[in-house]
Amino acid sequence: MSIGIIGGGVTGLTVGYELAKKGHQIVLFEGQPYLGGQASTFEIEGTRLERYYHHIFTGDEDMMRLIGELGLTDRMQWLASKVGFFYEGKTYDFVTPFDLLRFEPLSLLQRVRAGLVTLYLQRFGDWRTLEGFTAQGWMRRYAGQEAHEVIFAPLLRAKFGEYADQVTMAWLWSKFKDRVGSRSRTMARELLGYMEGSFQPFIDALADGIRAQGGEVLTDAPVERVIVEGGRVKGVQAGDTWPLDKVIATVPSFVFLDIVPDLPADYADQLREVRYQTSLCLVLKMTHSLSRIYWLNISDPTFPFVGAIEHTNLIPSEKYNGKHILYLSDYVAKSDPLYSASAEELMMHYLPSLRQINSDFDVDWVEDSWLFREDAAQPIITCGYSRRIPSYETPVEDLYLANTTQIYPQDRGMNYSVRLGRVVGELVDQ
After folding, report:
1. How far is CA 136 from each of CA 101, 120, 139, 261, rounded to the nearest angstrom?
2. Domain end position, chosen among 189, 209, 230
3. Residue 273 forms beta bridges with which residues?
4. Domain closes at, from 168, 189, 210
5. What is the pLDDT of residues 99-155, one digit of tens each?
6. pTM to 2 decimal places
């Protein structure tokens, strides 16, 4: 059976790889000149680096199974993370339960209360009972107003902006589950996984696996239209016309709507109902380190970014010729003026805040910068979301959709992208 895959991110590559193994003739179309989607890389200091910060957790079973199958297990490094919280001009360690107990911005009673709620959520299994509650309302009630405003509200604002007060508690629950799954049992510390030389070998191995089974992996090949006749998919238009038996689209919903304009109205409306936040990720190559923290959460609503992820506090700077690599992350709506800012404009806008984190910071530390935007970075997950998830099987026969709006209640990430690709692959192969 000939199967077209639209999109060469982790989901598209996984589903293509799984179906190629089963003997199907795969043609994968990627509009960019590179593969990997949000896990794609660029060259820096003679090695590769993700455009958007990436790591995996020890509990990411789908990802680890596939890494093992591809023969890449020995390239994985498991490293103790250094997570911090920046609040009112001070950086606090925020990894272990003891760090929470030492977290001075909260009273001792509030620290204990927040810790007990965190422990409860890490062991709680029935997320469906939480999806009718907003994360804001639930955490205010059980963790307390003070803990919510200092710790949890910044996380929600960081991801969802003006929609933070609408996000379901089921989504926040999934964050706790992922984190506890990556705790070292002996040290109660978080271990994070990163592949030696970036995750590019993983992306390459999936593409090579498709080709090894006789499939085609095309880059610089945007799909202009999915060809539908008589309510059934017939192929795609991507420069040339490609006749195909089945098509799987792994693109964002708004892209899918553009390339399949004749979808039934009810399914199209369902796709439009889920909105996205755009990610801005400014990557800095520096001569000095900003801080000692790998993942610094910002609990200050006046800051123009919500996270400072210093990659070289997880992976030694020696891997990058002694340079320090910093990601500055923010999520915005397309209407935000920052959406259209250049890397240089963002750098100057961020400068006062960087100096709050490190008073010695100087713009001369920055040797180079790169700005990446992703319009489909974060689906906005509101209450009752499970009832609004679009089906993998579209109303067009033999046309399937697999994207991050269908990863729920978990947050989008490589592990769940792999799982999505595997699940859809099994469905299509029936």
Report:
1. 22, 17, 5, 37
2. 189
3. none
4. 189
5. 988 999 999 999 999 999 988 888 888 899 999 999 999 999 999 999 999 999 988
6. 0.94
